[in-house]
Design goal:
transferase; Alpha-Beta Plaits; DNA/RNA_pol_sf; 9 strands; 5-stranded mixed sheet; Reverse transcriptase (RNA-dependent DNA polymerase); 500 residues; RNA-directed DNA polymerase; alpha+beta; GrpII_Intron_Splice-Mob/Def
Length: 500
């Protein structure tokens, strides 16, 4: 008897199992939120209401003409002006798309197309959504481990076969995907152009529903769910197939392309061939509305060195220099200055959190640590959950009469940072049990204050369906009642000791 694999590719599941997987809370929104946000119950109720019912039958208005149908959390990339939108798709539209995609005949088509996309084994996609088979590991943790195993370690192995590698990625991938390219990927460009309004075609159904969720825009798809990750992979898989045809026409034989979502590694023994493939890729993507990022495109003859992210190379061994708490944070600050918003910064802060979580009291001054920690977070937005967890501990270690003052100091810093709603969500997580309630600007924070709060514009839905989208449907009251004032490591960390 063989052991069950640690994970299953979503695309390898049956239509029924795929539907079940996509209707999980963590599939609906894969961004980090506090534990009292849970969308399973709401999605299950909508799934039941939409079973055998056309979306139009629950509408009282034209959804495509509405603004703010989805809720967007703008996530800063650098603490300045670069940002990435993470969208909580309107749950009714999300469930409707899951139904469209996982109808038995539709799912068979999708599985057949993904097999077609991977026809040339020299172009390999290693980023198809994964579903964990372990109760101890989330789908997100499984995906991160897969990145390390399938991309970085695979790249190290490929150094035995190839002398050169080009790294490149797509600029604003999700925001650039042309929605009409979804039917092209599933049905071919020619047929799709002949039948743009044929709603028997799965690609047209998905195209229309995505556009409806975004005020009929054709540029871009939502980012933040397993569903739209799979749809992005359809378009990118289609581009893999077109690239393989273009390379064949060019007569290039000795190469290997490793793709993780919109991140490409092009291996070759001839730098001219690698450059030619990159040019062909740029042309293929251009026809689909996307373009390569010139600032992230580089060629190297040092395959091993370029296969490991620079932040990891920088940090290896240096963390042993840490001494007291302030110096430990300053060392992480140095890393974050050299490699902002990198995975190594996130892992370093996670380890610091585990260290400080064991501290009962300290003679070290709290405010300098809060200052260094806040500066790290402002310039490294991916660490907001860990930052908030550490801040909750530092505030708990401070004098009771200083706690509200410290929180206001930190919040005032973030109020000057564009797109910092995510940190407001996480600071609310520990200020609530502390009995401190600053003015949080992120709309999602209002869901804890008002059970009837409507996050999504749902005026186009009938009253029964609209009621399923109120805050009481996705705020877990039982979890709210168990909140501690200090956020424990297990609430914000997927791995106990990092993953590399």
């Amino acid at each position: 008897m063989t052991d069950e694999p640690e994970h299953t590719r979503l695309i390898d599941m049956s239509d029924a199992d795929a539907r079940k997987a996509l209707l999980k809370s963590e599939s609906y929104f894969d961004f980090d939120l506090p534990i009292y946000f849970g969308f399973d119950r709401m999605l299950s109720k909508i799934d039941a209401k939409l079973s055998g019912v056309a979306l139009q039958d629950v509408c009282v208005g034209k959804v495509g003409e509405q603004e703010k149908v989805n809720h967007t959390i703008f996530h800063s990339k650098d603490g300045k002006y670069a940002w990435r939108p993470q969208e909580l798709i309107n749950p009714v539209l999300y469930v409707s798309m899951v139904h469209q995609l996982t109808e038995p005949d539709a799912w068979k088509l999708v599985q057949a197309k993904f097999a077609e996309y991977s026809g040339d084994q020299r172009i390999e996609c290693v980023s198809l959504p994964l579903i964990s088979n372990s109760e101890k590991k989330t789908d997100k943790a499984t995906t991160i481990l897969s990145w390390w195993q399938e991309v970085e370690q695979r790249s190290l192995s490929l150094s035995l076969e190839y002398e050169y590698v080009i790294h490149t990625d797509v600029t604003d991938c999700y925001g650039s995907i042309y929605t009409h390219s979804i039917p092209w990927a599933l049905h071919g460009k020619s047929l799709s152009k002949k039948k743009p309004n044929d709603q028997t075609l799965l690609g047209n159904q998905l195209d229309r529903t995505i556009r409806w969720s975004r005020n009929n825009q054709t540029n871009g798809i939502p980012q933040g769910s397993a569903l739209t990750n799979l749809i992005a992979e359809m378009v990118l898989g289609y581009s893999d197939m077109l690239l393989a045809e273009a390379i064949k026409e060019k007569g290039i034989e000795d190469f290997f392309v490793l793709r993780y979502r919109d991140d490409y590694r092009i291996f070759s023994n001839n730098p001219a061939d690698a450059e030619a493939i990159t040019k062909l890729l740029a042309e293929v993507l251009r026809d689909l509305g996307m373009k390569l990022n010139p600032s992230k495109t580089s060629i190297s003859s040092e395959v091993i060195k370029s296969s490991i992210k620079q932040d990891k190379m920088h940090w290896i061994g240096k963390e042993k220099r840490k001494r007291n708490l302030v110096k430990h944070l300053l060392l992480i600050h140095e890393l974050s200055s050299e490699h902002p918003n990198s995975g190594s910064v996130a892992i370093a802060l996670s380890k610091f959190q585990r260290r400080i979580s064991k501290v009962k009291e300290t003679k070290e001054p709290i405010l300098p640590m809060v200052g260094v920690l806040t500066d790290i977070a402002i310039h490294n937005p991916r660490v907001y959950p860990s930052f908030s967890a550490i801040l909750s501990k530092l505030v708990a270690l401070s004098e009771p009469n200083e706690r509200e003052w410290i929180l206001e100091l930190v919040l005032n810093k973030f109020r000057r940072v564009p797109y910092s709603g995510h940190v407001h969500i996480w600071m609310q997580r520990f200020s609530l049990p502390m009995g401190v309630q600053p003015d949080f600007l992120e709309p999602l924070c209002k869901a804890l204050e008002n059970p009837d709060f409507e996050l999504w514009n749902s005026t186009w839905l009938n009253p029964e369906m609209r009621n399923l989208l109120r805050a009481r449907q996705y705020i877990e009251q039982e979890e709210l009642g168990k909140l501690s004032t200090v956020i424990p490591p297990e609430e914000v960390q997927m791995f106990e000791n990092g993953y590399y």
